[in-house]
Amino acid sequence: MVCVYEGRNGTMNFYFNNKFVATLPLNEVNTSESYIQHADTIIIDGLKSGYNLSNLKKKFWKAIHITKDEKDLSLDDSQFFAFAMLALIKLKQIDADAPDEGFLVMSPYKGKKKKRNSSKSPAVRK
């Protein structure tokens, strides 16, 4: 079972091989766009450090395969998986909208709605 980290603005859920693997909380500071931007920065930093695209892709795939079968990922492990996945999406190795892998941004859970008891409606005057 995956530990869901829900933020004030929802979650960003990651799937791989038809399996729910990781989740990131969304709030005012950590938006889905900021997570994607951070993955882009990781790619750029890797290229500046001397890695070529082929090596980066191998490292990101290795990160995916290391964490994909873990249960109860910590928030740090979820971020590790998510940034590797977002980087592979950016490098066109994974299709973000594929039926068996990618990510889904979800709004916050609102809980069950309470039923109103119609018998307690105000009395009608005649």
Q: Indicate the proportion of strand residues.
A: 15-25%
Assembly type: single chain
Spatial extent as radius of gyration: 20 Å
- State the distance separating the first and last CA atoms: 59 Å
Strand order of the largest sheet: 2-1-3
Mean pLDDT, as a whole number?
86
| Order of secondary-structure elements | EEHHHE
Explain this structure.
With 126 residues, the protein is of the alpha+beta class. It has a domain of 67 residues. 38% of the residues lie in helices and 16% in strands. The chain is built from 3 helices and 3 strands; from the N terminus they run ββαααβ. It has a 3-stranded antiparallel β-sheet with strand order 2-1-3, covered by helices on one side. A hairpin with a 2-residue loop joins strand 1 and strand 2. The protein is elongated and about 65 Å long. It starts with 9 loop residues before the first strand and ends in a 20-residue tail after the last strand. The model has no long low-confidence stretch (mean pLDDT 86).
What's the topology here?
Layout: E1 10-16, E2 19-26, H1 32-48, H2 53-67, H3 75-90, E3 102-106
Antiparallel strand pairs: 1-2, 1-3
What key phrases describe this protein's structure?
126 residues, elongated, three-stranded antiparallel sheet
Tell me briefly what this model is.
The protein has 126 residues and is α+β, with helices and mostly antiparallel strands. It has helices at residues 32-48, 53-67, 75-90; strands at residues 10-16, 19-26, 102-106.
